[in-house]
């Protein structure tokens, strides 16, 4: 089911959020979440993402779901230690 969201920047995300679920959209880029420092769970599965980026500041992130995207290389996760 396509929910129609094309960009995370279309949303106003509060910096105190602990979980974001944006699966089944048309998001092509991970952006506009670097200020959500308390984020622990992020679901961007079933989108159009082809590159992992923009996650460096999410040091509290424990769960990341990027399944069913267009990603061909796993990189950009060095800062995530949880």
TrEMBL record:
Keyword annotations from UniProtKB, A to Z: Leucine-rich repeat, Repeat
Keyword Signal assigned: no
A Pfam family that the UniProt record links to this protein: LRR_4
Entry keyword annotation includes Repeat: yes
Domain of life: Eukaryota
InterPro entries (alphabetical): Leu-rich_rpt (IPR001611), Leu-rich_rpt_4 (IPR025875), LRR_dom_sf (IPR032675), SDS22/Internalin_LRR (IPR050836)
Name of this chain's protein: Leucine-rich repeat and coiled-coil domain-containing protein 1
Native species: Neovison vison
Gene it is expressed from: LRCC1
């Amino acid at each position: 089911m396509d929910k129609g969201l094309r960009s995370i920047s279309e949303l106003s995300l509060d910096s105190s959020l602990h979980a974001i679920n944006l699966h089944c959209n048309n998001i092509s880029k991970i952006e506009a979440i670097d200020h959500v420092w308390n984020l622990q769970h992020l679901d961007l599965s079933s989108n159009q993402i082809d590159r992992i980026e923009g996650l460096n500041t999410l040091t509290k992130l424990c769960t990341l779901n990027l399944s069913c995207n267009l990603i061909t290389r796993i990189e950009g996760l060095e800062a995530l230690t949880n």
